[in-house]
Structures are given as structure tokens and as C-alpha cells.
Specification:
This protein is mostly helical. It is built from two helices and no strands. The protein has one domain. It is rod-shaped.
């Protein structure tokens, strides 16, 4: 009886450790996704700014004009 309880408690502990690892992986993906979205928003803001937009427009016009 005691051996069965010990075996069962070890099995439950393994399951809990496995669940904990899944949660950490999901959290890491969530943080990575948030960071990627923040970087994309920053890049979009920079590209839409006046000087950068003018420079990109000039590059495109000169590339298409030749």
C-alpha cells in the first residue's frame, strides 16, 4: 500500500513538472510575440516619419526614373 502511494505521488509530481514546463514555454512565446509586435510598431513609426518617408520616396523615384 505504501509503495503504491509513493509511486502515485511520484507520477503526479512528474505530471506537474511537465505542466510547469509547458507553461514556461508558452510564456516565453508570448513575451517573444509581444516584443516582435512592439519592434514592428516602432519600425512602422520610423518609416512613416517625415525624413525617412522622404528619403525612401526619393530612392524609389530615382530607381524608377532610370
Amino acid at each position: 500500500m505504501t509503495a503504491r502511494i509513493i509511486h502515485r505521488s511520484r507520477a503526479v509530481a512528474r505530471q506537474l513538472r511537465h505542466l510547469g514546463e509547458e507553461g514556461m514555454t508558452t510564456a516565453e512565446y508570448a513575451v517573444g510575440t509581444v516584443a516582435a509586435v512592439a519592434f514592428a510598431a516602432l519600425l512602422l513609426a520610423v518609416v512613416k516619419s517625415g525624413p525617412v518617408k522622404a528619403a525612401l520616396t526619393q530612392i524609389i523615384v530615382s530607381a524608377l526614373g532610370t
